[in-house]
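Q: Given only this backbone (163 positions), what sequence would you predict?
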């Protein structure tokens, strides 16, 4: 009798641990995808800033004060407000941002699907809301994963995601 109770208790603990590890695995994959998104967006932004700095250096070398001031203003506006510069090509930046965003959206969709399949409906709803907010936001929005099953709050894009 005691052996059966003990085995039943062990089985219950095993099932709970399995459910918890499934939740953790989904959240960890989503956290990883958000980290990859942040790295990709920072790389894209860094490349664009580097292009602007090259133009600034060229303007300094040429002694062109007006161009230098305009380029410095564009660089400051991009770094502070996210305004895209007009003096350098932005096609590569936009392509990299679209690719990073697509990968992030795919990760959110997979997390919603997996949360739903594992009967974690509250996490599925919260993750779906975050995906909806991401899809409504701009491509320059940066997100940061906070603790709590993959909950995400927006850093730059106004408002906050539920989390």
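A: Predicted residues:
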């Amino acid at each position: 009798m005691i052996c059966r109770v003990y085995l039943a208790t062990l089985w219950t603990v095993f099932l709970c641990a399995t459910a918890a590890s499934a939740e953790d695995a989904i959240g960890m994959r989503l956290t990883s995808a958000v980290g990859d998104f942040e790295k990709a967006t920072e790389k894209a932004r860094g490349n664009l800033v580097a292009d602007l700095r090259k133009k600034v250096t060229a303007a300094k070398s040429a002694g062109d004060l007006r161009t230098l001031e305009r380029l410095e203003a564009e660089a400051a506006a991009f770094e502070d407000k996210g305004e895209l510069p007009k003096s350098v090509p932005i096609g590569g930046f936009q392509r990299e941002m679209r690719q990073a965003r697509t990968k992030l959206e795919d990760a959110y969709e997979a997390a919603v699907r997996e949360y739903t399949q594992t009967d974690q409906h509250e996490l599925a709803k919260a993750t779906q809301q975050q995906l909806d907010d991401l899809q409504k936001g701009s491509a320059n929005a940066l997100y940061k994963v906070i603790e709590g099953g993959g909950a995400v709050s927006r850093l730059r894009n106004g408002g906050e995601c539920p989390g």
